[in-house]
Amino acid sequence: MKAAFTLSRPVLPVGSSSKVDVLVSFRAEAQGAPRRGLNLSVVIDRSGSMAGAPLKHALQASRNLVDRMGPEDWISIVAYDDSPMTVLAPQKVQNKAAIEKAIAGVNAAGCTNLTGGWQAGVGHVKTQQSRELINRVLLLTDGQANVGITRPEDILAKVKEATGAGITTTTLGFGTSFNEDLLIGMAGAGEGHFYFIQSPDEAEGVFGIEIEGLSSVAAQNLVVTLQPAPTVKVASVLNRYRFEARGQQVEVGLGDVYTTEDRQLAVELAVDAGATPGTAPLMTLAYKYQALVDGALKEFSGELPVTVTLGSEEEASALSADKNVLAQTSRLRIAQVKDRAVELADKGDLAGASKQLRNTIEQLSANIDKSSFELIEEVDQLEHYAKRLESRKYDSVIRKEMRDQSYQAGTRSRNDLALRGTAGGSADELEAVSSAEGGVVVKCEREGGKLRVRAVSQGYDASFNVQFPRSAREEGVTYVVEKLVPSADGTFYRAQGSIKRLVQPGQERSARASSGGGAPKKTGKASKVTGSAKDLPTTNSVGNGVLVQCVKEGSKLRARVVSDGYDPNLNMRFPRDIREEGILYVVDEVIEMSGGGSYIACGDIKRLVQ
């Protein structure tokens, strides 16, 4: 493995106190690196809220994962609702058709015993555990732990215990109801990864990223020790890695290194430069890791001296900052700002949260590399989130986007995972026209969890990204912009002038204020139906409804709410004639009775088919 460093400032002025960022890259040799065997347990949330598209795509993603595994890899599959169920006991991936058939038999039902499902997966991995294999649990969920062990601190303690025993954890959150802080915490404690799957059809692509990484692990347990020179201090570790300070020395755990992805470490150093020009030491970076050699896991180590050139004030000022280091460290500092903004917003201080973002926008705009589409996109994302906070439209989706973007920036160096998010934008307020005369036509499409705008008009490169306001982006919408201007380096376009929505003739209208949108109005009236469950209208999606399940308790059939945010232990007023054991129902609305302690089903009721 090769280690190299780059400084944000190549020359520091002598006799001064200053700060400098150091970006260290660890790159595994792609050629000759043996593929590590896999020992995976896929743990799938099959609670009622996963019914329909989420479960369908989760199962397809699981089948795709199996397709990419080899005959010497191990796989087990657990599905969980109120309790875990082993769908596939640990076995080698030698009969893919039989494994995929077992996956296809998983249906949705019940509540979310997240911890029980994860523990069952850990148990299966443990039966085939080996130091020479990648031993990992992949946990998929769209909800919150509401059965079994539910306290986050208790769950994280168990994940840390499994990690200490050599079994890592990756978490994948579907939709808008899961607890992202818990899943990010589990991924951190489990030394795996976290992924936010905003739309169910993104599951297969995200699974592909995870299996690509697992199949290209070249080194494990990379640990870096930073020993600064006497006149240097480690001011901060910018990444979201586990680290521990021991006096002046800092130890950082970077985890696995892949042949497909550099592992990067960024630190800020506070330097009291000496009075003598020339090369001066900043720190010594010692690292150790494990790698597979001739079928056995062996320990390796190395050292990287980090130095800087000291010169005159004029020499230091004449050289500009390194653009790559500036871009990477800016992303990491923006990630920290997003986390602080979320903390403030969670406390109700939306103005303070927005101010954090606005201050960062101002700082970036003064120093940003105008030829970097990624940094310009970062600024536009911050602008979008600031506007959402200022208009009091801070919701679970925006929170998840900000937390995911912060997590990915702090732990990964993949562009396909950076700045994912598709919520909150709307073209509804734009003037709508039916002619593109005098303008340039562009269209917004969703690509890998991001909203991208591309040119449609002839004479423009349709592969180029278009710098375009995030707040106006809406999937599938076509726009007319006044003009597109190439960036300074000719790698993307900037939309300039007016922006209008392109519609069919007869649909033209003036620009208008936001309508607010939202879910259909609720009635609050108790549900009334006739006939039996088989007479109910059917649906294959929960949509904006509430999921209810009928379970047998003794001699009675009881209806309980299994959607997240409700207490599944409360009784429910629900039409008796349609109650049938095991059936899932989608109800327009569920309200709590005035005295508390029970629920009432309101509005229409449909039977969920899978």
Describe this structure in a few short sentences.
The protein is of the alpha/beta class and 610 residues long. Helix content is 25%, strand content 36%.
Name the descriptors.
alpha/beta, six-stranded mixed beta sheet, single chain, 610 residues, 28 strands, 11 helices, 25% helix
What do these coordinates show?
The chain has 610 residues and is α/β, with parallel strands linked by helices. 25% of the residues lie in helices and 36% in strands. It has eleven helices and 28 strands. The strands form five sheets. Strands 2-16-15-10-13-12 form a six-stranded mixed beta sheet. Strands 6-5-4-7-8-9 form a six-stranded mixed beta sheet, sandwiched between helices. Strands 17, 18, 19, 20, 21 and 22 form a six-stranded mixed beta sheet that branches. Strand 15 and strand 16 (296-311) form a beta hairpin. Helix 1 runs antiparallel to helix 2, helix 8 packs antiparallel against helix 9 and helix 8 runs parallel beside helix 10. The two termini are 49 Å apart.
